Structures are given as structure tokens and as C-alpha cells.
Amino acid sequence: MKEEPIHILIADQDLMTVSVMERYISAVPGFVVVGIASTLPQLCLLLQKKKIDVIFVEPAGFASDMAETVGRIHRISPMTAIIVVSSLPDRVSIQHALSLGAFDYILKPFSFERFRQSLYDSRDRQLFFRTLPPLCTQKDIDDLFPLRGEKNLCNHLPISIQQETLDHMIEVLSTVNAPLTIGDIAFATGFSRTTTWRYLDYLLKIGSVVSTLEYRPTGRPLKKFKYLK
Questions:
Q1: Which residues pair with 180 in a beta bridge?
Q2: Residue among 211, 160, 165 nearest 186 (CA)
Q3: Residue 80 contacts residue 103 (beta carbons within 8 Å)
Q4: What is the DSSP string of 5-62?
Q5: Cβ proximity of 43 and 70 under 8 Å
Q6: Of 113, 102, 104, 106, nearest to 89 (Cα)?
Q7: Cα–Cα distance, 104 to 65 (Å, whole number)
Q8: Which helix (H) or strand (E) holds 211?
Q9: 3-state SS, residue 108
């Protein structure tokens, strides 16, 4: 059975940017643009009428400030991932967007590679929530948020990464030569999918793991990970 694509809404008054985003999205399997809005009323109407998983929005021009635009989106469709696309590089604007609940912040002009990564990350977000049980344990919740704790001053690990857990992940990955899916790794390590994603993301960032896409006749391509020994 073919998996349902990620439904995307583009909200931007810049027709050139809209055209670029449409072209980029069409080049990545598993994502589809289901609406385009150039005014706040259009944006709100589309959110009410369509299933929107992800919205790429340039807040400027839609309302008096970013808080009003993002706030309206959250009130209508609280589960929609909001990705701000902006030409404002200042720290205050970025911090403001994140504090309002933006999932990502992309600066204009942006590359295809950076935009595609945001698409993949938004899809991972959907997977995170789909794997959660109806009633969460504290462990389920902790897997979604950075762990509270002291930073390891010896190896400078991020707060959300624990050495013992990282060592176990590396031990499992290093014993297999073939690339593994997130499900394979979660099963082999005994971690939840959200914890597995967090540690894989860290290993990707430090260059210890590479990811590849395996295309299938139907459905989305499989993302696989391989440890570089």
C-alpha cells in the first residue's frame, strides 16, 4: 500500500520564492503542495479546509508581526509544522520564531540541499508523533525533549546526548556492514524511534554516520544509515 505523501502549504507573497519552493518540493518524492496563499485570509481558509502537515511561511506581509501570523496558524492547525522562510538573519527574529513554536527557520536565498533537509526533518517529525502511544510515559516524553542534565565537560557532548547511550549505538552500528533503516537500528539497540533519531542526527553531524536513500517501486524512499569505521 502506497504511503500518503506529506501535504505542504506555501504561504509567501514573493512569487519567485513560491516558484522555487514548488520546484524543489516536486523534486523530492513523498511531498506534495496542496495549497498556496498570498494573504492571511487565504492562509487561514486553506488550513481549515485541507489537511496540512507542513507550512512554509514568510510571516512578513501577512500580519502586523510574526506572532500574529504564527499564532493564527497554531490556533487553526496546532499539529502543522511551521517552517519560517525569511530574509531576516538577526538573532532576535530567529529566537522569536523559535519561541513561537516554529519547527525550522530558513534564510532567503536558500539552497536546494538546505530546503530538502527541512523537508526530510519535517517528515521525521511526523514519524515521531505517529510512533507515540495514546498515553505517554515519562520516557516517551523525555525522548521528545532534550534531556535535562549537566553537559559532559570531558568530551563536550551536547546535553541531549549521553555517553553510555551513544557508545551502545556505535557498538550496534559498527557490527553491521550494510546500511540500516531507523526501524532496524531501533530494534537492534532497544531504543525508541525518537531516541534513535536523536543519536543518529548527532552522529551524522559529526561525520561518523552517512545516510542514503533507497528508492522502491512504490512508496517513499527508505532512508538508511551506515557507520563509518
A1: 225
A2: 165
A3: no
A4: PEEEEEE-S-HHHHHHHHHHHHTSTTEEEEEEESSHHHHHHHHHHS--SEEEE--BTT
A5: no
A6: 106
A7: 18
A8: strand 209-214
A9: coil
Q: Which three cell numbers stand for residue 202?
A: 548527532
Q: Write out the E strands in 90-153.
A: 104-107
Question: What span, in angstroms and rounded, lies between the C-alpha atoms of 229 and 201?
Answer: 17
Q: Letter for the amino acid at 112?
A: F
Which residues are CB-neighbours of 77 under 8 A, at least 6 positions away?
Answer: 47, 52
Tens-binned pLDDT, residue by residue, of the chain (229 aa): 456 789 999 999 999 999 999 999 999 888 999 999 998 899 999 999 999 999 999 988 776 678 888 888 989 999 899 999 999 898 888 888 888 888 889 999 999 988 988 888 888 777 767 767 788 888 777 666 543 433 443 445 665 688 888 889 999 999 988 899 998 999 999 988 878 888 888 888 788 888 888 887 777 778 899 998 7
Angle 182-175-131 (CA atoms, 0-180°, nearest 5)? 15
Are residues 46 and 74 in contact, defined by beta-carbon separation less than 8 angstroms? no
